[in-house]
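Encode chain A's predicted structure.
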Amino acid sequence: MKEHTIQMVDLVGQYEEIKNEIKAGFDEVLGAASFINGPAVKTFQSSLEQYLGVKHVIPCANGTDALQIAMMGLGLKPGDEVITADFTFASTVEVIALLGLTPVLVDVKWDDFTIDVAAVEKAITPKTKAIVPVHLFGQCADMKAIMELAERYNLKVIEDNAQAIGARYLDPSGARPMAGTIGHVGATSFFPSKNLGCYGDGGALFTNDDDLAHTLRGIVNHGMYERYHHDVVGVNSRLDSLQAVVLNAKLSRLDTYGAKRQAAARAYNSALAGLSGVETPVTVSACEGICDTCNCHVFHQYTLKIDGNRRDGLAQHLAQKGIPFGIYYPIPLHRQKAYRDERYNEEDFRVTNALSDAVISLPMHTELTPEQIDYITSEIRSFLSQ
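Encoded structure for chain A:
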C-alpha cells in the first residue's frame, strides 16, 4: 500500500461529501459580506447549544483563546493556582502562565490518560482557585469526582474539551451529560483535525451560568456589549462566518463521524487483540467496551501503549511502510523549559513519564477503510512479533 493512500487525518476525503453545502454557504457569506458574527455564526451557536444541551455557547477565535477567556471570565487573578494535567498539549498550561496565574501540574491515570483526581486533591493549597481537567483523546475525565472535589474546596472547573466534543460522560447516577457542559465552563477547539473541525482556526466556550455567559460574551469582543463602550477588559477573539459555514455542515454529521471513528477503533482493537507488548485503548466508564450508542469515547486519537522500549522502533517501522503516526505527547509539560518548576518531584509524574515513552497514535478519521486498517495492523503485528 502506497504512502499517499493513508493519512493521519483525511480532511480531503471528508470534504468530498460536504463540499457542495460548504460552497453554497461560502457564496452566501461572500455575497452578503457578513464575515464577522454573521448569520452563519448565529446559526452555529444556536445549533451547538441544542446539540450539547447547554444554555450558552460563546464562539471565539480558537481553542487556546477559549481557555484564556474562561479563566478571565471566572475572575482568576495573578498568583492564583490552577491545577491541570501534565500529559496534554501545551495550550492548557500556556494560558495559565500568560495570565500570570500559577500552573500546578499533576499526574494522569495510565488507563485512560486523564487527570488523576487523587493527585489533584494532594496538590490543592489555599491559593488554588481552579481545576482544568482535560478530556484527552476523546474520553471524559472523572467529572463526578472532580466536581465533588471542587465543591468541597470551593474551586472552579474549566473543562478542556478540545479533543472530546460529541462525547458523553457516563455518570454513575445514569446521567449522560455532554463533555464540556459539566463544569462551570467548558472550552473547545475547532482546529481542522478535531472531530468537529473548521478550515482554519475556531473555538467556543460552553456554560449554563447566565452571568458568566454575559461576561464571556463581552470579553471575546474587546469587552464591549455596546459599540465603543468597554465594560470589561477583553480580547479580540471572534469566530468568522466562513468557518461557521464549515462547522454548521459538520455539526449535523458529528454523531455519524463519531460512529465511524468508533467502528475504526473496534476494528483496530480486534486486529490487535492478544498481541504481546501492546495495550489498546480502554473505555473506563459505565459503558462496556466501545459502542456507538452512548458516545462515551469519540476517539479523537486512537493511542496504543507499547511495552519494552519498542515504541520508537515501531515508529520507525511504520514510517518505512508509509504509515503515518503521532506521538502525543513526547515530552511531559513539567519537563518543558517554559514550565519547569523546582517544586516538582519526578516521583509525582511516574505515569506521565512512562506514557511519554510508550504512546503512539495511529491514523484515526472518518475515511479509514478496512483495507487500510488491515494494512496498518498487519505491519504492527509483524514488527512486534519479531
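The first helix runs from residue 11 to 32.
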